[in-house]
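Weekly puzzle thread! Below is a chain. First person to post its structure in token form gets bragging rights.
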Amino acid sequence: MSDANAPYHAHIYFDDAERSAATQLRNDFGRDSAILFVGDMTDGAAGPHPIAQYEVHFLGAAVPAVIAMIEKAALRALVHPLTDDDLADHTSLAHWIGEPLELDVSVLDPPGENKGVPRFGVSDF
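Winning reply:
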């Protein structure tokens, strides 16, 4: 991580047995001023993500603290920057916490293209 102001996401994955821990972590993120956005918990596949998850948005300066919070909660997560390359963001630029999942990369934008979904740091909020 070289830019403290670079936009990042984390996708926090959970199953039924982990729902309580995921909810608690989501609440903790909601009280952390370094977290810019906490998404809704989804029950099932969403986009490239094959199981229940929610996302949090933050800047590069918060990456170490976010990773530490996820590791303490003992949940699986994907932490990645938001660049002009969705595929790289979710693969080669991504950091997995716990066992990686096989993502459906076919739904991701090609490099340099946005399929109409607002991008963090541009028009998301």
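Puzzle host: Confirmed. Bonus trivia for everyone else. The helical segments are 19-30, 63-73, 86-90.
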